[in-house]
Amino acid sequence: MKKIAVLPGDGIGPEVMAEAIKVLDAAQKKFAFELSYEFADVGGIAIDNHGEALPPATLALCENSDAILFGSVGGPKWESLPPQQQPERAALLPLRKHFDLFCNLRPARVFKSLTAACPLRPDIVGEGFDILCMRELTSDIYFGQPKGREGAGPDERAWDTMTYTRAEIERITRIAFETARIRRNKVTSVDKANVLTTMVLWREVVMEVHKEYQDVELTHIYVDNATMQLVRDPHQFDVLLCGNMFGDIISDEAAMLTGSMGLLASASLNANKFGLYEPAGGSAPDIAGQGIANPIAQILSAAMMLRYSFGLDEAAAAIDSAVESVLDKGIYTKDIAIDKSKAVGTAAMGDAIVAAL
Ligand SMILES: NC(=O)C1=CN([C@@H]2O[C@H](COP(=O)(O)OP(=O)(O)OC[C@H]3O[C@@H](n4cnc5c(N)ncnc54)[C@H](O)[C@@H]3O)[C@@H](O)[C@H]2O)C=CC1
Ligand SMILES: CC(C)CC(=O)C(=O)O
Ligand SMILES: [Mg+2]
């Protein structure tokens, strides 16, 4: 029996999490494995209920579980709190750091039946594309010290520190090359080495590690060009290797190129393959509470959990196929429906995926 810490969080988090649990329940019956779930508050809801975004009991549950299934945190209700107390900074970043979840996998692929929902020109998207955004998740400007703010008036200033160690770059780069070998053998490293010293080190280390992976094609690209090339010709990319901030930005862009933020799943893993699984998007306050959020990113994140944390490849593949077959039948939530009047809600999408499974 594998124990899952389920942290639905805020906004659409609980809505899409309910559908992922339905799908996991159906997968357990079909493939004869057993999961136990324990739910806990995280993010804004935890501030409301317990006075802090990452209560000790939630962290203890995660420590005593085999994997973490995470929804999303944050929203306008908590935006006026001091920055250090906001749900994203006080819960999600510390969780990633605590478990050393440095390797964030965000696969962006266009489902065949969704090419019409994809914002790219049909001649560009063709039959679809398949990119793996590999984002370093525990360093960079999000974590670098010092951070600060001081003064007042026109001289008031604020600062963050972009920082990477050689070891941090090496470990994510090695995984990028290993992963490319089981994909299409190509790594594009995204940096800004023309301006940032941190990124000069990034590029140097990527080139050094590449000496051990000469069979893998390596290209370097500046981040501004990368965002443009993604729109111009996404087919040129296989594994996009990014630091924390650039990967954050690039993965949202890649998500939308597939049709919606609500489609992009993610896995955040440490060296022992302990993982936190969450949609790449946030709590979507603009649609929360309406029952219209797309649960597919959360469901595919649960499938990634089965695959990476538990080696249940067959069950994971069956969930992926169930999602694909539901989309093939023209069952769409509002974000991906061309004819919005025919869109189904969050629960109906979950039910359809369970039925397909
Ligand atoms: N991992 C996390 O917990 C993350 C939390 N956030 C937080 O979430 C809050 C909202 O952030 P935003 O910048 O608005 O980004 P967001 O990703 O929540 O929303 C961006 C857009 O994508 C749409 N969207 C996202 N997920 C969707 C889904 N499943 N189905 C249909 N549409 C979907 C939203 O409706 C919105 O129009 C903020 O407090 C932010 O800090 C943002 C990103 C990640
Ligand atoms: C707290 C943020 C870094 C969350 C986010 O936008 C992400 O992980 O994609
Ligand atoms: Mg993001």
UniProtKB/TrEMBL annotation:
Binding site for NAD(+): 75-88, 282-294
Catalytic activity entry: (2R,3S)-3-isopropylmalate + NAD(+) = 4-methyl-2-oxopentanoate + CO2 + NADH
Keyword line: Amino-acid biosynthesis, Branched-chain amino acid biosynthesis, Cytoplasm, Leucine biosynthesis, Magnesium, Manganese, Metal-binding, NAD, Oxidoreductase
Compartment annotation: Cytoplasm
Top-level taxon in the UniProt lineage: Bacteria
GO molecular function: 3-isopropylmalate dehydrogenase activity; magnesium ion binding; NAD binding
Cofactor note: Binds 1 Mg(2+) or Mn(2+) ion per subunit.
Principal location class: cytoplasm
Cofactor(s), by name: Mg(2+); Mn(2+)
An annotated GO cellular component: cytosol
Enzyme class: oxidoreductase
InterPro entries: IsoCit/isopropylmalate_DH_CS, IsoPropMal-DH-like_dom, Isopropylmalate_DH
Protein EC: 1.1.1.85
Binding, substrate: R96, R106, R135, D224
UniProt-annotated site: Important for catalysis, residues: Y142, K192
Any one Pfam family match given in the protein's UniProt record, by short name: Iso_dh
BP GO annotations: L-leucine biosynthetic process
Chain positions recorded as Mg(2+) binding sites: D224, D248, D252
Pathway: Amino-acid biosynthesis; L-leucine biosynthesis; L-leucine from 3-methyl-2-oxobutanoate: step 3/4
PANTHER family the record matches: 3-ISOPROPYLMALATE DEHYDROGENASE
Family designation: Belongs to the isocitrate and isopropylmalate dehydrogenases family. LeuB type 1 subfamily.
Subunit-level organization: Homodimer.
Biological role stated in the UniProt entry: Catalyzes the oxidation of 3-carboxy-2-hydroxy-4-methylpentanoate (3-isopropylmalate) to 3-carboxy-4-methyl-2-oxopentanoate. The product decarboxylates to 4-methyl-2 oxopentanoate.
Protein name (Swiss-Prot/TrEMBL): 3-isopropylmalate dehydrogenase
Organism: Desulfopila aestuarii DSM 18488
Gene: leuB
